[in-house]
Amino acid sequence: MTPAASDAKPASTVTVDRTIALIGLMGVGKSTVGRRLARRLGLPFADGDTEIEEAAGMTVSDIFSLYGEEEFRAGEARVMKRLVEGPPMVLATGGGAVMNPETRALLKDKALTVWMRADLQVVAERVRRRDTRPLLRGRDPLETLKRMAEVRYPIYAFADVTVDVGTGAHSQSVDTIVEALAAYHQGQAS
Known about the structure:
Elements lengths: L18 E5 L6 H12 L3 E3 H9 L3 H8 L1 H16 L5 E3 L8 H10 E7 L2 H9 L12 H16 L4 E4 L5 H20 L1
Parallel strand pairs: 1-3, 1-4, 2-3, 4-5
Helix pairs in contact: 1-8, 2-4, 3-4, 4-5, 6-7
Subcellular location: Cytoplasm
Enzyme class: transferase
Family: Belongs to the shikimate kinase family.
């Protein structure tokens, strides 16, 4: 976990009493925006994939190639449980983490979930830049993301808050999330 550092903007008035879990497709910006959101909120940040790599002592790609997706998902579920049951933080989950029913139930029960959604063409352009995503190797990113969206979007819809992020600056996405969290808390208080 990375401790939060100071940020240019003042801390938000959003009250945080549980982990804020960012969910959404790979490449939507959960890790990058999550770090900035954590700074804004004065919280620690954890990236699910990084935590899995540290726990396993190998990269996500290596886990996939040596043990397969099923074993990766089992390890991911254990790491998500450990992180969510700890002190409040901003947590960038892996895109498929919530496909596990136990992880999804845990997040729904113990975290505030934020679905980061973006245009698939934008996400495809982002993920084309790096060859580190095992589920995209040798596949057309846009077609793969479309298939994932068909399956995952109905699951992601369980989120407490949904925000559309896009081609704007990461700080704009952070602002959008903070506003959505404030509105969510206002709605809960009424």
